[in-house]
């Protein structure tokens, strides 16, 4: 027999009615409805009591009926390029934090960096009646822009700026950040600089970071040597490893290399160690993103720090604001960054 201190759970909620929830909480049915539908504010104490009654009874609101009344499903569609990259894990955590605060849920999909796949996912999200969409795209091609234009729900783009201001974007100033880390290498006295870049079809992490590197060299009057510029098609350890291997095949090697991300820098570092080239005395290295491994490898990496969590948080906040008030257009947001100097570029270490 259950004690009175342990409230009876009525089961899976299949036959539980909203009337039973109201009776257990000691409130009216309309008050329960206000809390579950978020139609009108109630006190925190009352809200807590009603939600506890919902949990104890196992009551499951009719989501379909509620969405028809509210014209909302309470679900946000999120599209990311890949799942194993820690950057996107942090980004999703930021989105989830905001969604949870607004009693919404996210439906996550992985595009594998394929614009056609992204367009298909947008159509699926539209058909499933998502309240809104957050898209982290590596590139925004014409087909994807057309798919975005066909969306009848609000959306926010992460990481890329749209040429046409169709929707708010949240992004990092990759060009400026790459300019700053390259300028740091030049300030340290390194004059012969190379770069291992990501794919240039990735406008933000690939092309813009290369452009920032080039701008810094041009400003200082330093030459850009083609044999020290290596484009890779990914942002992985192996890309950095193979990229450094390619650079070292040149007749003369640079005295510093900027890598488009920390994982590439770690791969480049491994190849330098295998080649007997010390870092930074034989060659300096700098990365981007300040992933956890940047402070674990030896020597620790000079890099650019920014917050994927904040990027996801800001994007979700923009979207939620539009959902709550469609008249809010929402402007673009630039996420701040910071140069973090460590031993991989310091000749004093």
TrEMBL record:
Keyword tRNA-binding: no
SMART domains associated with the record: HTH_LACI
Molecular-function annotations in GO: DNA-binding transcription factor activity; transcription cis-regulatory region binding
Leader sequence segment: none
UniProt protein name: Transcriptional regulator, LacI family
Record's keyword terms, sorted: DNA-binding, Transcription, Transcription regulation
CDD domains in the record: HTH_LacI, PBP1_LacI_sugar_binding-like
InterPro entries on file: HTH_LacI, LacI/GalR-like_sensor, Lambda_DNA-bd_dom_sf, Peripla_BP_I
Record lineage: Bacteria, Bacillati, Bacillota, Bacilli, Bacillales
Record-annotated HTH lacI-type domain positions: 16-70
PROSITE patterns for the chain: HTH_LACI_1, HTH_LACI_2
């Amino acid at each position: 027999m259950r004690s009175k201190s342990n409230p009876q759970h009525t089961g899976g909620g299949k036959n539980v009615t909203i009337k039973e929830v109201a009776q257990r909480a000691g409130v009216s049915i309309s008050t329960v409805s206000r809390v579950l539908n978020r139609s009108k504010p109630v006190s925190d104490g009352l809200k807590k009591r009603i939600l506890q009654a919902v949990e104890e009874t196992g009551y499951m609101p009719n989501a379909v009926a509620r969405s028809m009344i509210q014209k909302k499903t309470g679900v946000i569609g999120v599209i990311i390029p890949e799942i194993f990259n820690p950057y996107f894990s942090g980004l999703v955590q930021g989105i989830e934090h905001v969604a949870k605060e607004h009693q919404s849920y996210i439906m996550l999909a992985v595009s594998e960096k394929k614009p056609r796949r992204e367009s298909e996912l947008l159509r699926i999200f539209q058909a499933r009646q998502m309240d809104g969409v957050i898209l982290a795209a590596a590139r925004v091609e014409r087909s994807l822009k057309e798919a975005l234009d066909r969306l009848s729900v609000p959306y926010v783009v992460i990481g890329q700026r749209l040429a046409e201001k169709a929707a708010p974007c949240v992004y990092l100033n990759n060009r400026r950040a790459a300019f700053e880390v390259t300028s740091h290498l030049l300030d340290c006295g390194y004059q012969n600089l190379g770069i291992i870049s990501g794919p240039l079809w990735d406008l933000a992490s690939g092309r813009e970071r290369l452009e920032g590197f080039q701008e810094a060299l041009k400003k200082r009057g330093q030459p850009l040597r083609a044999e020290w510029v290596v484009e890779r098609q990914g942002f992985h350890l192996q890309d950095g490893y193979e990229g450094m291997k390619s650079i070292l095949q040149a007749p003369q090697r640079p005295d510093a290399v900027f890598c488009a991300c920390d994982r590439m820098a770690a791969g480049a570092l491994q190849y330098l160690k295998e080649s007997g080239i010390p870092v930074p005395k034989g060659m300096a290295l700098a990365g981007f993103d300040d992933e956890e491994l940047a402070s674990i490898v030896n020597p620790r990496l000079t890099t650019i720090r920014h917050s994927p969590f904040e990027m996801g948080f800001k994007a979700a906040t923009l979207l939620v604001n539009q959902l709550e008030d469609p008249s809010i257009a929402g402007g673009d947001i630039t996420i701040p960054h910071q140069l973090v100097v460590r031993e991989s570029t310091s000749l004093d270490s």
